[in-house]
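Troubleshooting: if your tokenizer reports a length mismatch, compare your output against this known-good record of 283 residues.
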Amino acid sequence: MNFGAIDLGSNTSFLKIVNERKETLLDKIFYTKTARGLNSTGFISVEKIFELDIFFAEISELVKQFSPITIIGNATAVYRDATNGADIINYFSKKYSLNLIIIDGKKEAQLSFLGAKNDFLNYDNYFLIDIGGRSTEISFIQNGDIFESFSFSFGVVSFDGKTKNDVFKELNRFKFSKKSKIFVGLGGVPTTIGTLEKGLLSFKEDLIHLLELSPKQVEKWYSFFNNSSQKDIENLDILDPKRRDVIKSGSMILLAILEFFDAEKIILSTKSLRDGIIEEIIS
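Known-good structure output:
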């Protein structure tokens, strides 16, 4: 029996399939950029829906190659926020016979934690952050479980062009009752910065997973991107071409969070929501 997870994000989407021994059979990223234009219109455009149709058709064909399979797809912030988000998910669920559901921020945080937690059982407490396209989930982990978590309405797409002060304002809307100076970071923003800090020409999971960064190292890359033109960033061959348009806002958000909580370090995890979905299916 194989198990699969579809992570339908605001900027990127993923398909991961494993066998019953949890060995990865497929782990594919798709730069769907579904949230582009949502801030100004409030809905996912017709043009983007046509692009999603092509995406779901490819997903459907890939899933068939690994049959029999139990698979769940979870849609996140862009589909929660868009006025036509639920209609789109329902339409593609039926058209391609996929089990797709929209989850809230709390569930998103739970699944991200479930995917990453086994690597951090030796830590009594820490903050877990997952920066997405339109939302960021921050959870306080205590004794191997979520003590409290909040979903914030900022992400690499929705906060493009904004400042650290804008992030601080959002963070001040909620008060965490616990404190820790240790952070665990999921997603493309911290792992991209880790890849740059290691001087790698491309992402290498075995070299990035569990890599520790200081806030000063994150600040160095934020300053670099903040003082570079978008054209200069797009000319950086070491950056994934599909992430070059969001790395500036992403590094700003990450640094703002670390500064706000006075963090000492952030430990990178290459695990993610899709790993949590699979863990939940198997369990």
